[in-house]
Amino acid sequence: MVNNTLLSIRNVSNTYISRKFGLFGNMEKKSVLKNVNLELQKGEIFGLTGKSGCGKTTLARCILDLIDYEGEITLNGEKNSHSIQMIFQQPGASLNPCKKIGWLLEEPLVIHRQSDRIQKVDEMLYRVGLDPSYKNRRVYELSGGQKQRICIGRALILKPRLLIADEAISSLDVSAGAQILNLFQELHVNLGLSIFFISHNKDAVEYLCGRVAVMKKGEIQ
Questions:
Q1: pTM for this model (two decimals)
Q2: Closest to 72 measured CA to CA, from 43, 45, 39, 31
């Protein structure tokens, strides 16, 4: 029997330590994630929804191995966060305003010493719905939706196995948000892209995703 599981999350919990009443107060542990179990299949768009503060972003950071957690998270059966890329809520915050768009898209290819970089940048711009002339623009010249397209292109240019979109449309207006949802759908169909779509917008999650899980107070309902 073929195992089609891409991302496996098993019994994942996370706590953080806070201090009551300022610097010299008592230490207090707060549970953020509580025994979370999820599986994402290869080539699917999986949705996670829930109110702000319920632990969705914390789970994403655990998947990326940015914070400590208890339990097990594997990609293709291995502990590997290097083949995962993430799209964040504020698209402009992750783009260097001093650099042109072409440089921003090419940078990951330079770091990984890949060839045919100009061609790959042009192809990625087309892939995310922009033409090559955008290479000469800077971040401040772009709309919110265009910035998010650049962030998506930058995340995909190294061909990750999984894309995590964490509140990727929440800072956009309705029209731009709908266009980004349609772009995710196109990338899913054309590239076979696996997407973990995280949003408090239940309508967006249900529109885009084949399967949906709901989180409440750090637990999957």
A1: 0.92
A2: 39
